[in-house]
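Slide 14.
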Amino acid sequence: MAVAGRALALAALAACSMGGASGLSAVARRERLAVIRDTAAQQGVWNAAVFAGIAISETNLAHCWSEATYACKGPDSPACGGPIIAGAADGPCDAMQGGLGMFQFDAGSWADTVALYGDAILTPEGSTAQAVSFVVDKVTHDVAGVAGWLAAVDWINHVPLVAGEPVTEQWAQLLACRYNGCCAASARCTERAHGYRDHAISVYAELGAAFWQTADRCSELPADGVIDDRTVCYLAAGDPRGWHREAAGQGGARDWTLTGAAGAPVHFARWIVHARPGLYRVEALAEGGAAGATYEVAHGGALTPVAVDQAAAVGFVALGDFAFTGQGDEYVALGDATGDPGKKLVFDAVRVTALPAVSDPGGMLRR
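Slide 15: predicted structure.
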């Protein structure tokens, strides 16, 4: 697999489509596809079969060397209990070059790849998350009218899994060029594009629509009203290398990133509020950060910003009382574009608590 360099001068990923049969059992194969499905959903991608098509094209879903012993033995991974697979298209195995893992990321030597993408690239979840981020970046740059993460994800989510559909063919050609480095109008590049397309179509049909359905996984407010990070009603966007995890906060773990310049956020999250119509108090667990944060509450067609000083926050901080319509498009959001770069910004739980109904002539009650 070859991938053209990303913005910020990321190194090209070398061509190393492996071929060969994967040693995955039927159960392990299904589990691996579930990892791709669920990791993509955490980033807002419901059409995850298109990413499964990439992994099948590259390594037939193999990530660990024990699953594909025809490949080179790459660096050890805790997910494998030994080495992950490494491609051999860039030279002999002892040169320690070539793509790593099921999405075959390659920044030169194996050490270069791990240094660029981090240790997470050695796990199936981390490799998938980076693949989503990479392709979102390419869709943003290459598809007319698509600007930003949410627009790119929406475009990906509407790629029909039907050969010959214009958007499907555009997706397949984009992958052949940007992910595999095969941009020429040649039989070889057409074959690569069709591989990405056909593997996505076939794996979707193999497991069925019910397996791949994640668009409705957040269907209701949790019973206690607490929407924690990394749960089904939480989405995190942006390059995975900018997200960090620490043992603190709700449930014993929380996300954090560093703040950046003002403008469009590079990393942001949404806590989806799938509540019944009514009035609710919204709070954010904001302690542990060092930045001034601006939470945004989308409610009843309005978007209300609320400033919170995470450096001074203790426990849950009230963002206000809001009337929610229950339409499924309401949320709390937080992004890193604070205009005060380099500060720790935490992303923990949001709590949404029903309040007794009161008169609200304006329809957008907030105290």
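Speaker note: Confidence is low (pLDDT under 50) at residues 1-17, 363-367.
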